[in-house]
Structure prediction request, 658 residues.
Amino acid sequence: MEKIVYFDYSAIIILGVLMISFITRKMLKGRQNRDFMALVLITFLTTIFDVYSVAFDKFGVGTGMIISKIVFHTLYLFFHSLTLPYYLLFIIGMTGSDHLTLKNPTYKILVSIPLEFEIFMLVLNLFKHNVFYFNEEGDYVRGQFFWVNYAVAVFYLAACVALLVKHHKTIQKARFISIFSIIPAVICAVLVQYFFPFLLIESFVIAVCILYVSLVVIRPEENIDSETGLFRLPAYVDNIRKAELTKRHMVIVMINVSNYRTLSRSLGYQSSARLSFEIAKLISEECKEKRIRAEYYYIGEGKYRLLIENDDRPLVPECVKTIQKKLSDGFSFREVEISLLANVCVAYWPDDIREEKGVLLFGSQFNEFQYRQGVIYAKEIMRQKNFDIIKNLDTILEKALQDNSFQVYYQPIYSIKERRFTTAEALIRLKTEEFGFIPPDLFIPVAEQNGTIHRIGHFVLEEVCRFVASDEFKELQIKVIDVNLSTVQCLEKNLAKEISAILTEYKVRSEQINLEITETAAAFEQNEMLTNIENLSARGFRFSLDDYGTGYSNISRAIEMPLSVIKLDKSITRIDQNTKLYAIGVNTIRMIKDMNMDIVAEGIEDEATLKKFEEMGCDYIQGFYFSKPLPRDEFVKFIKEYLNKVPDGTDYKEEKEG
Ligand code: C2E
Ligand code: MG
Ligand code: MG
Prediction:
């Protein structure tokens, strides 16, 4: 019966179009894509040789003809035999399980024997004619060992199923279904073709399945960043999750260009896209030169990630050092030298970090750990910086809010003019059973990120108001309590209303609360922030600028705001008298005084410093010299004792000596 080749023609068209789209869309990056492309190519060649075989089958019995027929059928069977092993390879890549399979010698041998045997039989067939042969009429006849092809196919199908089932968690559900559904489809096609050899449907079914997988699974738009051509965040997360599930060992390199945002603002969109691309190119070229096998990711905002094969671990330190140096040394871009602040962090998975969440958190935070630029190792950071706590902070904060385990402490602030404590700063404290005391510098940034800062802020203000409204507070002669507002709180639409509502509830006057905002908040160009501050000022609240001298020092913007107090940060109050910085300090204070604002010197720990800042004209002093922040009861006790000991107008020195 005449063989029907139209299905093969359709398969060739489908696979050809797929290959062209792969090449034009530059999709050959990454192992998964390469394996998939190989699969497409193999199926394409199988189909081509199938068509040739059928075409030549019609011709006569001359020696040349018979040889051609044998060659085409052999090539057809050869490529056909590769299809399922390559599908298995593709699944290994999808599930990220190569370290458990291909790198395991036993598995590798076991899995390659059937294919080798099939190929051996094909070669042997050239002499023994026991897989297929041509009879005297020149017709194609299946030999006594033709079944080997089927047996091997069954073996690889079973291996695919086993691997998919074992690692099903590493693949998203929709993808799993599409990859899995190919198996029954192919089995049906093979059976149909077995019983109806004239109906050449197999290649067509495989081609359609491949098309289906490429639409559902290999979606480049979703996974590849158009600026850099690297994989995007979802692919990064996906591959880390796979490593977690399959217990893979690897090296994660995180490169953060920390001045990217500033650069991209001044460069404009197109140029910064180009810059991202150039950086990506530099990174990948350097790795290739050092023969490091890596997958590259760009997760946006100047953040690059590399997942490197564990075997290449010894090559990593040298390579990242060069990358860091090349990026920081001045990056030649569009005829100008750009200086990039490149921070590089190397983490060994799973020795240093072993959860997907940990990697992401770590990647977003390590900039803060590293003030100097350069290469840092995750292990060092974790030793230094309570990483265990940071990792669990989301849960810790939620639990602390539920269990009411936050506390508010008060640190007295001394007025030089009145020679007594007139103010105190409310400072939040968190003590947990598992980790002990967790400093606010550690948890406030996380609370800002996960939104719990609003509830924390609410809690602090309520506690403060409850205290201010109490009878014992009235005896302390404290006029004002300072409450810290975080940047995120300042951006809240209803901030003014909420704060006023709490004050009304506790019958506290707005003059009794002084709100501290940080320099970073003041430098933030946000209308919402200014509206909030103006609204609250109109309601009688006073504002201080906290931590002056630590960050942006955008005093021009700060003076646009209704600020009454500037708090000099510890970094300023610690300046050595003999340095040039001291002159800056002196002039800063003079400038602030000229603007009619009060000055608080923070972090004063000894009398000499106190004297210095008094002479410079500071109005208030806060620091361990007087007292550390104290729990409410102790604070009350401290102030009461002080009031008993020192009558009005006594010098602080005498106060201290009592
Ligand atoms: P801050 O507002 O600048 O608070 C002053 C910090 O300096 C406090 O640290 C205080 O304990 C510390 N300090 C005071 N005097 C001295 C001294 O003489 N020597 C030294 N070494 N340190 C001194 P703390 O309580 O750890 O708070 C750190 C930061 O956390 C605060 O800096 C503030 O920005 C933030 N924070 C604290 N409580 C809250 C809060 O309730 N809400 C918000 N949003 N932030 C808060
Ligand atoms: Mg403060
Ligand atoms: Mg401060």
Notes: The pocket of C2E (ligand 1) is lined by residues 411, 427-428, 439-441, 444, 460, 484-486, 516, 546-547, 570, 602-605, 622-624, 629 (CB under 6 Å). The chain has three domains: 6-221, 225-390, 402-657. Residues 225-390 form a domain with the Alpha-Beta Plaits fold (CATH 3.30.70.270). DSSP finds 28 helices and 19 strands in the chain.
